Amino acid sequence: MSVHVGIGGWVYEPWRETFYPPGLPRKRELEYAASKLTAIEINGTYYGSQKPDSFARWHDETPDDFVFTLKGPRFATNRRVLAEAGGSIEKFFESGVTRLKKKLGPVNWQFMATKKFDAEDFAAFLELLPKKVDGLAIRHAVEVRHDSFKDKTFIRMCRDHGVAVIFAADSDFPTIADVTADFVYARLMGTSAKEKLGYPKPVLAKWADRAQRWARGESPDMELLAPAAPKKARDVFLFVISGAKEKNPAAAQALIAELP
Questions:
Q1: Exposed e or buried b for every residue in 98-122, given b needs 16+ CB within 10 A?
Q2: Most CB within 10 Å of its CB: which of 11, 71, 209, 256?
Q3: What is the domain-level CATH number for residue 68?
């Protein structure tokens, strides 16, 4: 089991005043961020294809145990009929993502807040997600943002496919705590500009403890929609996203410091 903690991306102007050392060349920002964090969620893949050489370069600029999670393309999720997303999904995996090799973490398939749960169509979408690409095992997570997904059928469906339901904390989106895969993916979106570390220290300690419990396979201390998943060790991916973005690197580093 392992717990990976990170932020969204590494290019953000205010971080050059609050996170990166003065005078650090921009081409070395990823290298520096990867020395302080253990994961990064890449958002650019949501908006369009990246170059294969970019994935290879990101692989080479980060430590051996570093992990990148990627946003799946919006062209696959922002559509009326999800069953027709096959072409977009294939194009995404043909864009060079596997050049990250073993540093490729889960893919986050994020849906708009207006997208409602349609059991038949969503099942068809899950069927389109590949288990392996170029010999590399692929893990998938879904970030749903409509209350209609708070449904036992949805939980059962994700478990059947081994797809994680992303836990969206401190946001206006529905929070679904059911564990449905061999890993847990959580996004903390409530950092405050008034807090030095983005969150109060007791809150950060609580999240670090929760991450360790998830990693041990223990049930979360939250209401579930379905019976708890069997207890077994799991990888955990915990990202500090949105909120007071300038504080997110500090919050992520504080979380890492809380871990054993």
A1: bbbeebbbbbbbbbeeebebeeebb
A2: 71
A3: 3.20.20.410
